[in-house]
Amino acid sequence: GCSSTGGRRAEEARAKASATAGGAVTTPRWKVAMVTHAGAGDAFWDTVRKGAEQAAAKDNITFLYSNDAQTQNQVQLVQAAIDQKVDGLLVTLAKGEAMADVLGKAKAAGIPVITINSGQEFSARFGALTHIGQDESTAGQAAGTELAARGRKNVLCVIHEQGNVGQEQRCGGARGTAGGAFQVLYVDGVNMPDARAAVSAKLQADPAIDTVLTLSGPMAATGLQAIQDARRPVELDTFDLGTQVVSGLKAGTVGFAVDQQPYLQGYEGVDLLWLYRSNLDMLGGGKPVATGPQILTKDDADALAEYVARGTR
Amino acid sequence: MSSSDVLVQGRERPAALRRLAGRPELGALIAAVAVFLVFAAVAEPFLRVSSFGTVLYAASTIGIMAVPVSLLMIGGEFDLSAGVLVTTAALTSSMVSYQLTAVTWVGVLVSLAVTLAVGLFNGWMLSRTKLPSFIVTLGTFLMLTGANLGVTKLVSGTVSTKPISDMEGFASCRWLFASEVTVGGLTIKATVWWWLGLLLAGSWVLLRTRFGNWVYAVGGDAAAARAVGVPVARTKTVLYLFVGFGAWVLGQHLLFSFDTVQSGEGVGNELIYIVAAVIGGCLITGGYGSVVGSALGALIFGMASKGIIYAQWNPDWFKFFLGAMLLLAALLNTWVKRRAERGPR
Amino acid sequence: MSSSDVLVQGRERPAALRRLAGRPELGALIAAVAVFLVFAAVAEPFLRVSSFGTVLYAASTIGIMAVPVSLLMIGGEFDLSAGVLVTTAALTSSMVSYQLTAVTWVGVLVSLAVTLAVGLFNGWMLSRTKLPSFIVTLGTFLMLTGANLGVTKLVSGTVSTKPISDMEGFASCRWLFASEVTVGGLTIKATVWWWLGLLLAGSWVLLRTRFGNWVYAVGGDAAAARAVGVPVARTKTVLYLFVGFGAWVLGQHLLFSFDTVQSGEGVGNELIYIVAAVIGGCLITGGYGSVVGSALGALIFGMASKGIIYAQWNPDWFKFFLGAMLLLAALLNTWVKRRAERGPR
Amino acid sequence: MTELLSLTGIGKTYGTVRALEDVSLTLRTGEISCVLGDNGAGKSTLIKIIAGLHRHDEGTFTVAGEEVRLDSPRQALDRGIATVYQDLAVVPLMPVWRNFFLGSEQGHKRWGGLRIDADGMRATTRRALADMGIDLPDVDRPIGTLSGGQRQCVAIARAVHFGAKVLVLDEPTAALGVKQSGVVLKYVTAARDAGLGVVLITHNPHHAYLVGDHFTLLKRGRMAGSHARAEIGLEQLTTEMAGGSDLAELSHELARPTAPPADLAHPVDPAHPVDPAPADPADPADPADPADPAEERPQP
Amino acid sequence: MTELLSLTGIGKTYGTVRALEDVSLTLRTGEISCVLGDNGAGKSTLIKIIAGLHRHDEGTFTVAGEEVRLDSPRQALDRGIATVYQDLAVVPLMPVWRNFFLGSEQGHKRWGGLRIDADGMRATTRRALADMGIDLPDVDRPIGTLSGGQRQCVAIARAVHFGAKVLVLDEPTAALGVKQSGVVLKYVTAARDAGLGVVLITHNPHHAYLVGDHFTLLKRGRMAGSHARAEIGLEQLTTEMAGGSDLAELSHELARPTAPPADLAHPVDPAHPVDPAPADPADPADPADPADPAEERPQP
Ligand SMILES: Nc1ncnc2c1ncn2[C@@H]1O[C@H](COP(=O)(O)OP(=O)(O)OP(=O)(O)O)[C@@H](O)[C@H]1O
Ligand SMILES: Nc1ncnc2c1ncn2[C@@H]1O[C@H](COP(=O)(O)OP(=O)(O)OP(=O)(O)O)[C@@H](O)[C@H]1O
Ligand SMILES: [Mg+2]
Ligand SMILES: [Mg+2]
């Protein structure tokens, strides 16, 4: 049987107007590789990649993407990109020092490098042209400031990948500026029922908690469920976006979201490499380019909904 | 024939006592009680009724899979793909319903067909190639992980599925897979009923049917079982189908309770299912164990992982405590079993 | 005694042929060649000398651990803590040197002591408690994962260690564990030499020493081995010490090549080591396998995982391809072995 | 006497080992066919082909006149061939009664045979074992904790209990005590009398001659002789089994306590053939050797 | 004749099963002590205690005058006790020669014994097996691919090869053919003559009486008799082993082809005790039964 509501048909109806125009550049077909420290199937990184792919399509660039969460594997992937003699390299520097050697090799091979997302402090040192992104600590601090402004007294920061530097920095930054009590909870981000039970357990154990801060869109959705389970008036705030975050913002169940515009990081990374190769341009003269943090609230929800549903915000 | 002519082979202690001591789950039961007592003592919120619901929910989401996984282990095989298969089930159901704009029940049924097909594939590969199940299901595990991501991106354009809560049939599916009832402060989720049902069915099949006898036999000594006419390949394949069924149930719960599904989920959970089975008394080499034990294993895991949170121990050391708890539970388990076997003096 | 009086038990084909066919690694060798040929055909960059260095490096970081892990598997046991133990080794070395402001060699030695102690703990728990190694090392795995994080946070305040490249001894340590030589475009990292050394040593010990004989025996039938006087517990403990040693080597490489260490890493690698061993012909149940095979397994894994990158296949499907390659390699492996055993007609 | 089984020119190779070559055997209803031979002669291999555990590489194998190539023991069982293997084919961790009924579980009537009748199966097992002189009050014990002979008894009792048209026994009395051996031989003759065909492997020529109707001798995988009972006497059979070498000579050597241990390398001297002791097949009242009842069965 | 082993009042319980109770045994140099008994009587259990595989729960166990409680077979081996187990204790996947030397590997001199002498070990294995009448050109085959009897021969050859002061054998001849059985008995007597003590378990009273100096009878875990050779004859031994029940009667029944299969439930009729056949122990020239050389060994 068919469903008369929702589903693909509804989406198609909504998206009738949208159309994409093909760009036309005259540069030869270059090859750009992006190597990130993302785990597989991470929505945030998917958005980064979408931006990069869009820019590559526009700039007549062959775009190669690879990712691995482990330092040594990410280094090997960068090396593999160098072996493939790419024309440009985009790298995340979540594990700063570890990349020093291999980026030196890229430099020696004459490959221009731009760092994205994390690792602003290493970028120039390792000879990158520029850095596009946002320091996780800075984002955390922005979240903390917002929490303080909203008068949250007791915050629970949910880290869904234990030992992940970026997530630690987000929580760490927020702890620094939030003012009130601040706790951390580790959950298993690939086991949502368990994560949900863990957060509700924590809420049951500590009645003082008045805010849950999650670090990704999907975890925000799980956090909302946990709050429901715990039957307590707890506010949920989050980093990054997602369909459920936007609908949460709209409905008022999500207080605010800290966004760093992942699409922009990917898009600008590729585009700047293209500009550099075709015209030796460099945005900001090589100074780091910030893509966030941006605090989004109920007011922004309506405007964002369409882009989030499309997977580009 | 006079009874004196019959050799009495040694003299035996009362059989009932020995039978209790020989039950694979006795140790797990005592370990579960011990873990409960520990947290009851150190974590005041642990004893609240509402907390009990949370722990039960956590245990049930492990336990639903631990039932077929323990049966499979008694049958002498592993399934490393069990964790991601749950995600596959949820993704399939969601994407089929969404893309066809069909009543969600269509997706639910297609999803069942897919999980059973994966189980069939595992069983078929195992019996045809004679490869160890560790390798076969590791292959399936990697392929499913890749396919979950690849297909989702291909179909949805993103790494997660689109919400389907506004579709027809969602409410009834949700009722079946993700509803909850609250009785006197205790919230019981649908997964708990499913768990209970699977537990009873699995236990009955194992202990009271001819198929259960075969499961023990193929795990204990496949060559001997084959020699007396047990269809070894078919038995193992059916066990993989069970795992597929369990993954389907849990996958539907995942979908209808969270509305959207991330394609990267489920990785690593297969180990937790195996742990639950082993803590519950299943031998890793097969041929021994019980379904009830796996439920106790799931309960221990659920209590330990949530108990640490209720007790508010330093979260940095969470995994450390969890590992220590598991080790202690397993130790207590074997100690009890050995004591029981030795019997009263 | 006349020779006619001696029973010839069946008539046998030339032993040399049978012996080659009986080698556990024959199938893995052919599978490795096949994987190489596939990527040589589809991925142009794969055949470059520099790429060869990258693949070799990737293989060596798996292979260093696959050597002791395969020995352990031949001895009939698992080690799920092998992956995080590598991280523990790197963390310990870094933090000890940094906190004591000592020559890095101090940290390196303390780290060796720690990894060996973990190996000893695993072996001791195994033999004292008679728990399956799956459970024991899963406990160690969780505890180490927790301790890696907990101790690092306690000591460094963050989840990664501080850089130590400006400390005394770093250069010489780096030379030993993380240097590289380039010969005609081919860059060979220190790990490759370590791998080769461990491979030769491991293979020699397994095939040519009394201890190697014991390893086969305790894995093949621990009760029988015990009955003829083999010190089963001691043999297994020594195998765990080997794993500790391998983890120490790889951990030092990570530290001295990347300068800082993330405390959350290493999880999941233990499965890759086991896969390398199994693809290389080790039986999951113990008693059969070879060290050289584990090296071929590591090579297959390294070639497949990097070959997919060189071939520029859709990264979304990376795991899918990897799983398919592994399954095909394992299939080819068994097919070859079965053909070889049947012999020429 | 209809033909139950017939093997013609059977050959089997394990990898590089040639275990059987050109072996033929025929079994009819109400007949006991004994297979004899030295260690490693290929007896178990022959049995495994009949039982469907291995496929033969050469020759033809017909069951009830139909040529077959058995792929699994199930097929053999379905054709009425029940087997006791030398390595027993029991699952050590399973309780005795589950092992007893494994593959032929007994269903409850009420549940349409789906639910097994555990109590009934326990009782049957206990009874079948008691009939063999093994009183095991607790048939819930894992069979791995039984003694070697007890396990053997379970395997034999199982095959006899479910035995259909052909009963195949691989050295059933090897691990058995005097009494149990007698019981097993009694089962064998009872099965024959009930019209079954029996293939019996044993190293004990007395046991063989006591019950056998036909004797097949294997040597290094080949047939070294095939005799009907009428054609051969116990002495001749014993001599052929021993490969023509002299075991009485051995008794001599054993009797010499001064025999130097260095002599160990040449235990059997083939140069001194002797005539084995003649048995007394005539007098049924003559109390037979209790361990090896050498009494001849009168021809019906 | 110094005392090698002495067990007094030994008891052993497995979980809830009482396998041994108040059993005593003494072994001196140059003596063969036979342990006899029905299936499940506790013979293997007794052997396992001597071999260090199980600890005894009650009683005292002294080796060379010193009271011991062996924790591992290694300790027994170090005290010079070599054992052949009923379940053989071989590792199926390992090559024959590695199994042969397992636990007693032979080192190369040049490497300070660290490196094993594989070729030497192969040659020794081949030789030791050939001595038993098993010619195995390829000792690199996994031992699991050998026939049951071949495996038994490897286990026996191993114990004999490394045998020190005490040789313990659990039903060594059960799976063996006529020739191999003879070889094994010859080894046993040679070991005795070399001054070793031997504990021998067998179901074959002829084998036992042929070589034994002392006979211990077990019944349901208790001693049912303990006799020096001088005190007991073959007939009496056989009767005691058979538990006093009548096996000749069985022969009668076997001889009746009309015996109804329903009778299967009562195979042994205890009501008809008979006198077993008298053996002729006097005449060494009398050619003995080749399968079961019943000839008596003259007292030294
Ligand atoms: N591991 C065990 N656990 C429990 N019971 C056992 C175990 N091993 C043996 N038994 C029991 O102990 C008793 C004696 O067994 P044992 O193996 O010593 O007999 P046996 O005299 O060697 O018999 P057979 O001649 O059949 O080999 C038997 O009742 C047996 O079932
Ligand atoms: N699975 C196998 N792989 C290789 N060779 C085998 C295998 N099974 C048996 N053989 C060999 O085949 C030959 C015949 O073995 P089989 O087991 O049939 O002998 P048997 O007559 O039963 O001997 P026994 O009386 O000792 O049991 C032997 O040489 C044996 O080593
Ligand atoms: Mg045989
Ligand atoms: Mg025994």
From TrEMBL, chains B, C:
CDD domains: TM_PBP1_transp_AraH_like (cd06579)
UniProt keyword RNA-binding present: no
Domain of life: Bacteria
Keywords of this entry: Cell inner membrane, Cell membrane, Membrane, Sugar transport, Transmembrane, Transmembrane helix, Transport
InterPro entries the record matches: ABC_transp_permease
Entry membrane topology: Multi-pass membrane protein
Subcellular location: Cell membrane
Residues that span the membrane, as ranges: 26-43, 55-76, 96-121, 133-151, 186-207, 239-259, 271-297, 317-336
Matching Pfam families: BPD_transp_2 (PF02653)
Role, per record: Part of the binding-protein-dependent transport system for D-xylose. Probably responsible for the translocation of the substrate across the membrane.
Protein name, UniProt field: Xylose transport system permease protein XylH
Native source species: Kitasatospora purpeofusca
Taxonomic classification: Bacteria, Bacillati, Actinomycetota, Actinomycetes, Kitasatosporales
Automatic annotation (TrEMBL), chains D, E:
Keywords of this entry: ATP-binding, Nucleotide-binding
Nucleotide-binding found in the keyword field: yes
Occurrences of domain ABC transporter (ranges): 5-245
Keyword Transmembrane helix belongs to the record: no
Chain residue ranges for the region called Disordered: 253-300
UniProt cross-references to PROSITE patterns, sorted A to Z: ABC_TRANSPORTER_1, ABC_TRANSPORTER_2
Superkingdom of origin organism: Bacteria
Alphabetical list of Gene3D superfamilies matching this protein: P-loop containing nucleotide triphosphate hydrolases
GO molecular function, one term: ATP binding
Pfam families in alphabetical order: ABC_tran
Designated name of the protein: ATP-binding cassette domain-containing protein
